[in-house]
Design goal:
- About 40% of the residues lie in helices and about 15% in strands.
- The two termini are about 30 Å apart.
- With about 260 residues, it is α/β, with parallel strands linked by helices.
- The structure holds octanoyl-coenzyme A.
Length: about 260
């Protein structure tokens, strides 16, 4: 890609159909400065536009996934400036991805790092991962989902405990609480995430995008509305070639050949 300073981008998997974004600012524990987030956003645009890519993985490097927003960059900002510039408003590109995004959390996922992981669709964590919303210790509060997404994922009491104390939780706790779906030995984290991405990428990109959007609605609306949206999206899969192919292949006892249409 273009001149990337804070991240690297690679294609992975047997079919080279997995986009891997690695946060690569290890000296600052991958602190999320504005320039880094801009690179993530632009790379997401590229990977989403690339038809060869079926799933995206976001990971960190060294001992951090990301240790939060860049405190040095934020230290001297004032209210008028952060309000008028709507500071952080454009940091949520990953939450609006159409393609599935897997977070492979290799180490510290703190503050904005934890929030970034929660913007992804699935989180795999290394045994060494640590999650937390330490903003309260800095005299501020989470600003990109740490009071909202986290609460919906782990429930009120646990979210309150994390957000009000800034405590860190282990990968094992994060799994028990439903924040991550799998805890993996450090050297297996990326291979496992790639395997998961490949599994998803082998299916119809169209059905995967619809399924992702439908699950996403569970976090946005009431149960009744969500069930209605789900039903209509289910119906609309009957307008696709891939739905016909998937069911026909099952009945014919052969592997489906999806065309993403
Ligand atoms: N910002 C800037 N620099 C950082 C950050 C950060 N968040 N975290 C670590 N660094 C730097 C350190 O300053 C240090 O730099 P230097 O070598 O120049 O002194 C270097 O990284 C290494 O860090 P440590 O020496 O502290 O490493 P330790 O192993 O001793 O400690 C910790 C690791 C526990 C992770 C520790 O670094 C720490 O507590 N970091 C801050 C964690 C934090 O408070 N994060 C929340 C930030 S606020 C926030 O994220 C608001 C969310 C906004 C929304 C974002 C949307 C995506």
């Amino acid at each position: 890609g273009p001149n990337l300073q804070y991240i690297t981008v690679e294609k992975k998997g047997e079919q080279q159909n997995i986009g891997l974004i690695t946060l690569n600012r290890p000296k600052a524990l991958n602190a999320l400065c504005n320039a880094l987030m801009k690179e993530v956003s632009e790379t997401m645009d590229d990977l989403e536009a690339d038809d060869s890519i079926g799933a995206i993985i976001l990971t960190g490097s060294g001992k951090a996934f990301a240790a939060g927003a860049d405190i040095k960059e934020m230290k001297d900002q004032n209210f008028a400036h952060v309000f008028r510039s709507n500071f952080l408003a454009h940091w949520d590109r990953i939450a609006y991805a159409c393609k599935p995004v897997i977070a492979a959390v290799n180490g510290y996922a703190l503050g904005g790092g934890c929030e970034l992981a929660m913007m992804c669709d699935i989180i795999y964590a290394s045994e060494t991962a640590k999650f937390g919303q330490p903003e309260i210790i800095l005299g501020t509060i989470p600003g990109a989902g740490g009071t909202q997404r986290l609460t919906r994922i782990v429930g009120k009491s646990k979210a309150m405990e994390m957000v009000l104390t800034g405590m860190q939780i282990t990968a094992e706790e994060a799994e028990k609480w439903g924040l991550v779906s799998k805890v993996i030995p450090p050297d297996q984290l990326l291979p496992e995430a790639i395997k998961l991405g490949e599994k998803i990428a082998s299916l119809s990109k169209l059905s995967v995008a619809m399924a992702k959007e439908a699950v996403g609605h569970a976090y946005e609306t009431t149960l009744q509305e969500g069930l209605k949206i789900e039903k209509r999206m289910f119906h609309s899969t009957f307008a696709t070639d891939d739905r016909r192919e998937g069911m026909t292949a099952f009945v014919d006892k052969r592997a489906p050949k999806f065309t993403d249409s």
